[in-house]
């Protein structure tokens, strides 16, 4: 087997010390071949949910659990919401617990008091 570096030719059928091989590999020209627009996964921080890694194109982290983007949860007695995209916010307490579903704003740590309303659960008496 032959390995060539520009201006140098090595025949590996003969014994070559390991440090020479490592030196030649480090000094040889490197070129990454990848599709245009692709980015290497190894150089990016993977999103985590607790100690688990998840795929943000298919999943989200909600309450330290990895959920599918299509999963729903109950919000009060009359509503459902998508935890990956919405917040379930209590609007009042007491004898009549009213809930409001609000939108999560991308790129921001969304909170009930500052997010726009998606739907009012008080007016619904069924699961959509």
Automatic annotation (TrEMBL):
GO molecular function: signaling receptor binding
Primary site of residence: secreted
Keywords annotated in UniProt: Secreted, Signal
GO cellular component, one term: extracellular space
Subcellular location: Secreted
Family label: Belongs to the IGFL family.
Protein name: IGF like family member 2
Taxon lineage: Eukaryota, Metazoa, Chordata, Craniata, Vertebrata
């Amino acid at each position: 087997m032959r390995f060539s570096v520009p201006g140098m030719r090595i025949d590996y059928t003969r014994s070559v010390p390991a440090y020479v091989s490592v030196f030649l590999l480090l000094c040889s020209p490197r070129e990454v071949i990848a599709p245009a627009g692709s980015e290497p996964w190894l150089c990016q921080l993977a999103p985590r949910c607790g100690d688990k890694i998840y795929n943000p194109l298919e999943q989200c982290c909600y309450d330290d659990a990895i959920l599918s983007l299509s999963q729903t949860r109950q919000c009060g007695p009359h509503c459902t919401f998508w935890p990956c995209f919405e917040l379930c916010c209590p609007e009042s307490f007491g004898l009549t617990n009213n809930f409001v579903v609000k939108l999560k704003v991308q790129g921001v740590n969304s909170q009930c008091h500052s997010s726009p309303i998606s739907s009012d659960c008080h007016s619904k008496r069924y699961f959509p």
